[in-house]
Amino acid sequence: MPNGSSRSTFTGAILLLLVAGLQAWVAYTGAAMTVGTYEVPVVMSWVSAGVFGFIGLLTLRAAHI
Prior knowledge:
This protein is mostly helical. It has one domain. It is built from two helices and two strands. It has helices spanning 5-29, 42-62; strands spanning 33-35, 38-40. Strands 1-2 form a two-stranded antiparallel ribbon. Strand 1 and strand 2 form a beta hairpin. The longest helix is centred in the first third of the chain and has 25 residues, at 5-29. The model has no long low-confidence stretch (mean pLDDT 90).
């Protein structure tokens, strides 16, 4: 387990990867998401999962794990 600021970076990376996993699950199950009266397309969940996953991996790499 990293120390100091690396620990914070590691924690941030894990949280980003958790969000990516949850977004991928939402996209996989096809759960309907509505903002106001607008129904958000499922492809946006896939995009969000990809973006959060990519940033999470970059952050994990920055933590020197």
